[in-house]
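Practice set, problem 2.
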Amino acid sequence: MKNPLLLKLQSYLDNQQFMSLAGNLTVSAMSIISVSLLFRTLPVHDIGMWVYFMAAVGLADSFRAGFLTTAFIRARSGATPARTAEVTGSAWAIALVITGLLGLINLGAWLLFGNTNDGSLALLLKWFGIVLVATLPYFMAACVMQSEMRFDRILYIRLLSQGLFVLCIIGLMLAGASTIDRVVYSYVGASVITSFLMLVLGWADAGSLRQRTSACIRELGHFGKYSVGSYVGSNLLRSSDTFVINYMLGPAPLAVYNLAGRFMEIIEIPLRSFVATAMPAMSAAFNQNRLPEVARLLRKNAGMLTWAFVPVILGTLLLADVPVFLIGGPKYQDTEAANLLRISMVLAILYPIDRFVGVTLDVVNQPRLNLVKVFLMLAVNVVGDVTALLLFGNIYGVAVASLPTGIAGFTFGYIHLKKHLPLSIRDIMTTGLQESKLLVQRVLSKAAAVLKPG
């Protein structure tokens, strides 16, 4: 018989918000661990190659995810069994076509440029298509689980894929056999094992491919043609610094810049968690024509996160050298990494409202506006990066260029969303503070109940 205390604790923690947060915390923690191990075992130049490789693969994956994820969740959430099978099968058909086309593009590029002397490009051309195929089933499984709000299973998927990769890196380190090629082998191997298990367990629901319909494919594609731009643009926005630095300064400065960015996972963890749990609820409210509820969910989530980030940002400004040492080790202590981290964390205060404004534009069926917002930010960022590097010749300029980028996107999204929902920054901050107080009270109440005997 289970301990009553454990039963109480399980009942309080077994909820969607906690499981989503736990899933994102797991994948981010594993990502930080793997990167920290790589920073310690690979030369700085090879770290830059790995960062470039993952940025390029992530860009392609964002195209696939962008075309499918938002449209898939909107169409599948709360649907009848027949509709669920139709949407899932149609999404599988689209995912297979996208993956196949990207693979053919990779094959053509490899035939044309496979003999390049650029190590970063050669690595990418060799493995790009293989990685996309290896990750497809577990990508689809994650989409299915998110539409069903099974965040516990998403946690298992992420723990498996990232955990296997970390174990492989540790094995390479212990064997003294760490090379950039073997790291890629490990990544592909972990992805293949995870995807195979998703197919065997049925979580990816690949059998529904038989239920696809041309009408549903067109429906998903119609929405996806807008949302894909937002996803790709958002990924380009995150990785544009990577590509610009790699081509203008080289892999070594890129490694230093990326080290500072790794700690930003502490911001991305709650952001992804809140967006993942809020988006189905916001979509359901919009589909039921409950616009005030959509606005309330936006104010609640964006406001709570903004208040939660304030002490984190202040703490990082004072102690930025600590995470740099923990992630990168002593060889990065006297580099620009700590100051780059400080600059990035200051800009993070805009992230919650900006992220939820973008998501809500998609929810209220305005993906075109979100697309324009993202590409506006991308244009400002690329121009700012190139100008700053030409003027200053170092990576500090790239970090400072992020300020006008964030302000441009924030302003555009906020102004246009106000045309569709009652919204103000003051209401967001007020609601966020009230909800934060209520959350603290509930946590204290639950803690007292858990600790109470009997």
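Problem 2, part (b): a different protein.
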Amino acid sequence: MRRKAIAVLGLLALTAGAAGCGAGEAASSAPGTERRPHAAPRSGTGQDAFYDSPDQDLVAKAAPGEILRSQPIPAPASSLLGSAVSRAERIMYRTTDERGNPVAATGFLLLPRKAPRNEDGWPLISWAHGTTGLGPMCAPSRTESLGGVTPLLVKWLQEGFAVVAADYPGLGPEGQVHGFLHLRAEGRSVAHAALAARNAGGRAVSEKWFAVGLSQGGHAALGAGEEAAEAKGMRFLGTAAFAPSSHLSTALKEAVDKQVNGVSLEGLRGLIAYIGAGAHVFDPEKFPYDALLSPEVAKEMARPAVHNLCLDQIDEYLSLFAPEETAGTLNPDWYENSPALREWLDSLNPARRTSAGPVLVLQGEDDKVVSPEGTRKLVAELCAEENVVDSKSYPGVDHVGVMPTGLRDLGTWMRDRLENTRPTSVCPAGSPATRGK
């Protein structure tokens, strides 16, 4: 029974925010038709006005982490969330995009029902979600299940943590497109969300905070550690990254080799398409869709309405309108012909700077989405940047299962940080990283 529960929680974590978003009608079209998705429909739940984009002058004048708008989230006492939460609300706050421009971002804030253990207030987890999609409707805060991870959130609330969760820039507010895997934007949004939680919750929310994330969120959490100074006046206790995305150009080069050798990329095509879209969002002229993607996939990703298809829909859509056997997925010459794209993708790798706190990296050894070897390389790079790094690997555990499998190690690690226990490190003896911070 416990194993089944772990598998369910892991699946929820992996598919965070994907359920119920986008224009799902397109995915059910018959093969060979020319039906394409239209703009994502309004949900009709009364949330719509909250996600209207605010006046940009107002955003520009706001301080990082300043609350621009909030809205209560219904949480009946009889519900799982309501049983553990004293306050639940959607928040809109000021952060920045990858170029440093001020933007409005959304997310949600949850405060525990149980009183804080001491006068410091509830320690805060700034949760960084896994891949959901590109369009506003793919934001976890827009879903009734808050991204499908309610059991995980309730566990942390019951343990006495406040939780804030960034949607990431481009997810949530209307009229935007998410810059997928934009490290600095995602990292700042996670750090600014922590500051927004403090601004909204006052002294009931502690100055002490963690960044915790899975997959894309592991990547974002590592970025948050590098950007932790953005949460001014708060005390960063560390990053926990589960199966973090890294080494994108290497992974995509290996994907080309698989494609050329006839190995199917099924199950990864949507993620690859999102990477191509993320590059295009950053610089439309420099990085057209077909710089990375095959012409057929690029044509589909250039359709604005396709941006409304979330993770639970994009693979099926591509299988209908750009099938792998005829369209491929990647431009086979992208690595050789696009040095600027390679350089930009490499710039998104975590471990470019020293984190403001210790780092815990957790990886399943049977992961087919994030390479265990790539994560080992990332750990070595984090050590080289003088980080204090602990690392856990789990034999036989895949991308879905790494988070529920590693929750006990995460809990121990966070308690040690709260108790000011000196962090352990896997970095080579004698390196600056082993001396702690």
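Answer key, part (b): The CA atoms of residues 292 and 331 lie 5 Å apart. The two ends are 41 Å apart (CA to CA).
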